[in-house]
Amino acid sequence: MAENINKPSTLQIRGNPKADCIEWIDGLKIFLIAAGLEQVGDKRKIALLINMIGEDGHSHELIKHFTCADTEEKNKYKIVVKKFQDYCTRVKNIIVERFNFNNAVQKYGETFESFLTELRNKASMCEFGVLHEGLISDRIVCGIKGKALQKRLLQESNLALRDCVEIRIHSGRAK
Question: Residue 104: which of 132, 133, 134, 144 has the closest Cα?
């Protein structure tokens, strides 16, 4: 009977690793129920999980290295699934994080301080390294709503993040 049931496709992490993983695990659960496999032993379900994740996910190596309290935990399906979901939650897609950062603009009515905090939070996910503060400055200049402040910032030949904040403070603008 299981031959006529659609298996979940191999796991593909795209824009949101956590959501992609949860959606895929939900598809696996549906498959196990539809195929009459929800009552099989944990070892078999773990083997199905590893097999269906696919080689691109390096699932066997990944699951083999999960930290468990004892060997018995590594053989419990629910624990392995939870560890796998935890792993996917920590995975991030740098290009998506950078896309979100680079498209951030100050919203109507948003204060400069709130916009700066949003940029700092987004930048912290981007792994910019030594460019971190300079890219935040660039994003402020490109995304700020106040055109007078933007024009003032553009007059600086070597604009640092601290300069953006000081110029904003001296401009007396609330946005």
Answer: 144
**Other CB atoms closer than 10 Å to residue 130's CB: what's the count?**
6
> Are residues 6 and 58 both part of a single domain?
yes
Beta carbons within 10 angstroms of residue 30's beta carbon: 14
AA letter at 11: L
Structural domain count, the chain: 2
Among 145, 144, 140, 149, residue whose Cα is nearest residue 119 = 140
Structure token pair of residue 22: 């949860």
pTM flag (> 0.70): no
DSSP codes joined into one string, 24-48: HHHHHHHHHHHTT-TTS-HHHHHHH
Q: Which of 61, 90, 119 lies at the terminal end of a domain, its last residue?
A: 90
Residues 85 and 6 in one domain: yes
Question: For 106-150, how does the pLDDT look when each residue is reduced to its tens digit (9 = 90+)?
Answer: 999 999 999 999 999 888 888 898 999 999 999 999 999 989 999
Contact 149, 126 (CB under 8 A): no
